[in-house]
User: Fold this.
Amino acid sequence: MKERGLLIVLSGPSGVGKGTVRQAIFSQEDTKFEYSISVTTRSPREGEVNGVDYFFKTREEFEQMIADNKLLEWAEYVGNYYGTPVDYVEQTLQDGKDVFLEIEVQGALQVRNAFPEGLFIFLAPPSLSELKNRIVTRGTETDALIENRMKAAKAEIEMMDAYDYVVENDNVETACDKIKAIVLAEHLKRERVAPRYKKMLEVE
Amino acid sequence: MKERGLLIVLSGPSGVGKGTVRQAIFSQEDTKFEYSISVTTRSPREGEVNGVDYFFKTREEFEQMIADNKLLEWAEYVGNYYGTPVDYVEQTLQDGKDVFLEIEVQGALQVRNAFPEGLFIFLAPPSLSELKNRIVTRGTETDALIENRMKAAKAEIEMMDAYDYVVENDNVETACDKIKAIVLAEHLKRERVAPRYKKMLEVE
Assistant:
């Protein structure tokens, strides 16, 4: 039996650059994660291949998947459904491969319920760290603007609580390196490694 | 107040190459760990500087440190005492620096009692993984030899239980990369990062 893969969930506030970081990770040759292919009801764009870019479904099929609990998480955007098929994720993990999901915060919370053992990484906006400077140098911005930003920042920081790790997206390359370090470290945890050695000795 | 540093403890069975890996890590320019300077009763060798290579002490001074609980761990080898001074480690952690300890398994267990929040990394001999092959290809080695190796392997695997991570020393450079990934990931844990953000917002 193969060692089960890791479920890696990258999420964070909208506009933080999740997609850019995900693309950068998958453009690196040494990346061994499997990208989780989403299910969608939107029409394929030119060049998009079913089962590669997306699993394309009708609304009826998608709603049946919802009813059958076949989606790890799903949402509706501008009239189309998008979701993560649980069977694909489960099968890939069983094959011993790490699955990489890049999703919205609401979706991540749904995934956390189904896969609490997943690796939940919060991508934080660099503006969070800059906030202090902006507050200190008040006067360059209006009070209302700063107050809005403070409210948003508080909401973003509260979101973090559901995650295992926080990576600031101040630089795409650095963010990728950090995400890969997190996944590597997770594979080296004693709870994962020791049973492998113990199993080895049973060969006797 | 600075964020407290991490205590990194690298240990493993004797002969596994802990010293080589430690030297390789500290020869890398981007390494930001502070090496924990040991206390010893042995005489300084040519070129060794007190407070840099070791803290050199008399036997009486060392025994006083033991009595005063000033040592995180200590042992006696070929007539000389060696130990880790708790004040130096504590002060360096408080300064926000990561402290790196490379010690024997017995010492690591002592440190774990005093600093359970430390990062305990077990360096595993690559021979452990080769064991399976050696058992499968029996005949090339005597049964007694294999049995001895099996016993040693079982003891080594049991040692792992006190550690957080296991890194196989199949290649010094890879082992260094893994250790650094573990430390980086640890710094990105939400429990460490979120309070920093929360503190930032208190500036209001």
